[in-house]
Specification:
The protein is α/β, with parallel strands linked by helices and 321 residues long. It has two domains: 9-121 and 249-316, D-Maltodextrin-Binding Protein, domain 2; 124-239, D-Maltodextrin-Binding Protein, domain 2. The chain is 47% helix and 18% strand. The strands form two sheets. It has a six-stranded mixed β-sheet with strand order 2-1-3-10-4-11, with helices on both faces. It has a five-stranded mixed β-sheet with strand order 7-6-8-5-9.
């Protein structure tokens, strides 16, 4: 008891210091790490939020793109940053819940990060060149079964969320197609539009203008509900494969030892912003759905993915580049 009593003043001081830091946070600019290239979905969402956080919290939020190795480089940088709330990650499931099963990564998602909130969902879309004689997912499945291994599909890269969408589709539909990976969405899109590769698995935001222009035919979206951006396109689950779900997410995370009070403050402000109709409409125009959660709900999403996707990756024989 004497030992505990001796430590209590120190514990109290630590709690008070943590609370005081949260009260004044942020007292200087915040580095917001986007581990993917500028112009992509992750970067777009990060910049929408950074602009508004700068206005509402009175300090600059500086988006810092640190792409490479499927998001692993920027994610590792954020994991090793000082846990003071001034370096945060705008992460995605690619590096946080898929990357660890595609190859060795220098961080542990659950150990090294504190979840703050989800920010967005970015479902993929399955689209085909108009010359392909299919007008529904059931027809695409029938064609793939009739021509096993000969139907090519494009994605933005090995181990990307579009690639995992395709792997899950092949597994559930019991078909075999040939993956043509590209180094990013733009070159893959060029070849799908040209008909060089007849099928594309891509983020909605990447293919949206081409779908609207009639250059591509959308057959299904990978989320659990129809996209507000493409309301006429059914989900994969309702069109052909009941229970299908690949609904890529993005979210804000901090280094694991960040004070809880800062996580709470960040969560409250981010959720408030993500509920603003203007923000939701801006993200929707990019084919992205605004999302938000408590830290505990976000952590549960991460844990669920860490249980779900290893089996799909293993069965598909996917290895990171």
């Amino acid at each position: 008891m004497a030992f505990l009593a001796a430590r209590l003043p120190g514990l109290a001081l630590a709690v008070c210091a943590s609370f005081a830091a949260a009260q004044t946070y942020p007292a200087k600019p915040v580095r917001f790490v986007a581990p993917y290239p500028a112009g992509g979905v992750n970067d777009v969402v990060a910049r929408v939020l950074a602009e508004r956080l700068t206005q509402s919290l009175g300090q600059q939020w500086l988006v810092e793109n640190r792409p490479g190795r499927g998001g692993n480089i920027g994610t590792d940088f954020a994991a090793k940053a000082a846990p003071d709330g001034y370096t945060l990650l705008h992460g995605g499931m690619g590096s946080l819940t898929l990357g660890p099963f595609l190859g060795k990564v220098p961080y542990d998602t659950m150990r090294d990060f504190a979840a703050v909130t989800l920010t967005a969902r970015a479902p993929n879309v399955i689209a085909v060149h108009p010359s392909l004689p299919v007008k529904s997912l059931k027809e695409l499945i029938a064609l793939a079964k009739a021509q096993p291994g000969t139907l090519n599909y494009a994605t933005s890269g090995i181990g990307s969320t579009p690639h995992l969408t395709a792997a899950l589709f092949e597994s559930m539909a019991r078909v075999r197609m040939t993956h043509i990976p590209y180094k990013g969405g733009p070159p893959a899109t060029v070849d799908v539009i040209a008909g060089q590769v007849p099928v594309g698995f891509m983020p909605i935001s990447t293919l949206l203008p081409h779908i609207r222009a009639g250059r591509l035919r959308a057959l299904g979206v990978s989320g659990t509900r129809r996209s507000p951006t493409l309301p006429e396109v059914p989900t994969v689950g309702e069109a052909a494969l009941a229970g299908f779900e690949m609904n890529p997410w993005f979210g804000v995370l901090a280094p694991a030892a960040v004070p809880r009070e800062i996580v709470t403050k960040l969560n409250a402000e981010l959720v408030r912003l993500l509920r603003v109709p203007e923000v939701g409409a801006l993200l929707a125009s990019q084919g992205v759905e605004a999302a938000y959660s408590s830290p505990e709900e976000f952590a549960a999403v991460i844990r669920s993915d860490l249980r779900t996707w290893p089996k799909v990756i293993r069965e598909a024989g996917i290895r990171g580049e």
